[in-house]
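LOG
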Amino acid sequence: MFRTLEGPAPKTALPKGSTDCHIHLFDSSTYSAQPGGPPAPADALISHYESVQNWLGLDRVVITQGNAYQKDNRCLLEGLDHFGDSARGVVAIDASISDKEIDAMTTRGVRGARIMNILKGAVGLDQMLEVNARVQPFDWSMIVQFDGRDILDHVADLKQIKGDFVVDHTGKFLEPVAPNSARFKAVLDLVDRGNCYVKLAGCYETSKVGYPSYSDLGALSKAVIRHAPDRVIWGSNWPHNMSNSAETYPDDVHLLDLLMDWAGSSENVQKMFVDNPARLYGF
């Protein structure tokens, strides 16, 4: 096991009810990678994440469908069954899903649909509005991830989403932009419409500055927190699928400590880790 599952506690204890809004689960003993997706990473089991959850001081979790499993959401649903009401799920589905299937998933804790337009995601932007129309009556939100450099091409469609949606991974700018750039301003303009959240997650995936400061992503994170602290959530991005060795594996406590600094105040921490996820996912 190259992943770190325990260690020194974060510098600042998280408030009660803190939520990790983005993790994935993988279990090769039961589930296989599906055609069209990337290979599945090393096992990231429920028991592994429970260790991380206890280590970081987290109480709630949002399990997000991993690209390797495409639209086979069974591993995620197993996780929801295990964690019960302290968990919610974001699945990958297309518009052919029946109301009966959506209702059954809702009962098990699913509250969102994933649109992933990069890295062999199962459902892309071309299907986003159709999926949104299917799940909106069930009060599911959408989480949307794409190369943020193309956001100006997607704004018109994003504005058509009914109900809440999340711009994932701080906009996922594969080449980080400045907070005053037109492309990042487009993210803030979406937030100002009242139905858009921004998820801060995986800064190490796109930062060009890198460890330890990740200051380019820090600048974007601090800007969106200042702009709309009621519309920001956080995810650990565990198990850090792009890392496959101890040498490249991110430091979860360091990343959390950075986020606490970027938040700027205990009031913002409460909003980002507790209040905003509770409102969005119905905790």
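LOG (cont.) second protein
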Amino acid sequence: MSDQEQSSKDEFFKQLAQVSDAMIAAHGKDFAMGALVLAARFIAERQSREAASAEAPNSPTTPAD
């Protein structure tokens, strides 16, 4: 991993820590943990949907009349 990539990742972790701290201060740690878990689930499900749509044959998006 390059130094630039590591620095970029470190910056994102700092941002996540700041957002997490703000959520905890406003709504408590249970809310913060739940929100982060939901965010991870959203990412995982989006990747699954994108993979499934890439494998599916092209089909019309609206039904024919």
